[in-house]
Amino acid sequence: MSRSIISILIIISIIAITLADKLQYRPMLDGRIVGGQPIDIKDAPYQVSLRKPRHSCGGILISKEWVLTAAHCTTSLSPSTYKIYMGSSNNLRDGIEVSVTEVHPHPEYTNLDWDFSLLKLDNYNASDVVIGFAELPEQDEPVPDGTLLRVSGWGNTQVPSDDRAVLRAAYVAKVNEEQCGVAYPGNISDRMICAGFKEGGKDSCQGDSGGPLVWGNKAVGVVSWGYGCAIPNYPGVYARVAFARNWIREVSGV
Fold first, then answer.
1. E strand segments, 89-203
2. Which residues, 6 or more positions from 163, have their beta carbon under 8 angstroms from its beta carbon?
């Protein structure tokens, strides 16, 4: 093969890799809230850390027995893969670790659509830690465009000096579905809700997946995916809890 042909193939490969990187919307799997502030667990007592065995995702305590998280965080169906850490703003100390007994990803989960999973917890004693349960919306309950929602977690802040163990939160605005579809053409379904700012600067990020997007104390979204973190014109995409409300009730009784 001539050098000229090899050079052409190399150039084509570089272009293909670049385009794939631009067009692939990767789930936020590892890691903080970008543009947020530290908060006390008392302000988000439903926030939990999903461990495999270290922190990998967030989760939402919806009752003493059940945690709602993202399906892409629970690719293994073996309960022994996971532990839930709860009750502390610091995910390295002062909380409790609880075993998982059942894993229920949404049966229609595929390619980040229907990105919900329910984890049933083993018995535990939370008398010495702070826990609380998020409220849930009714089936198909809407969230008005522009509503300020709060997202929290222990994910990537994009600031190396930030303490990774400290819980953080940021407020983001609910984005119109059509506007979100312009940012992610062909990738937004009715099972998704978008939130962020046109100028960027505030967002969930790697390690926040599965965590709560709340309106007051009501969990309206589960951190799911997005292009980068806090990039202008690319809002975060969350699994819309209201669309899965009947399924949550059916599986958990909550």
1. 96-105, 117-121, 148-153, 168-175, 192-196
2. none
Region at 253 (left for phi over 0; alpha for psi -120 to 50; beta for the rest): left
Active site residue 88: no
Write down the catalytic residue from 72, 106, 203, 224: 72
Separation CA 117–CA 71 (nearest Å): 5
Contact 197, 172 (CB under 8 A): yes
Q: Single out the catalytic residue among 55, 104, 115, 203.
A: 115
What is the H or E stretch that residue 83 is in?
strand 83-86
Give the amino acid at 170.
Answer: A
- Comparing 150 with 31, the larger pLDDT belongs to 150
The C-alpha atoms of residue 230 and residue 236 are separated, in whole angstroms, by 8
pTM of the model: 0.83
- Residue 43 is predicted with a pLDDT of 96
Q: Are strands 83-86 and 148-153 parallel, antiparallel or unpaired?
A: unpaired
Does 115 qualify as catalytic in the annotation?
yes
**Other CB atoms within 10 Å distance of the CB of residue 45:** 19
Tokens 């084509």, residue? 12
Q: How confident is the model at residue 208 (pLDDT cuts 50, 70, 90)?
A: confident
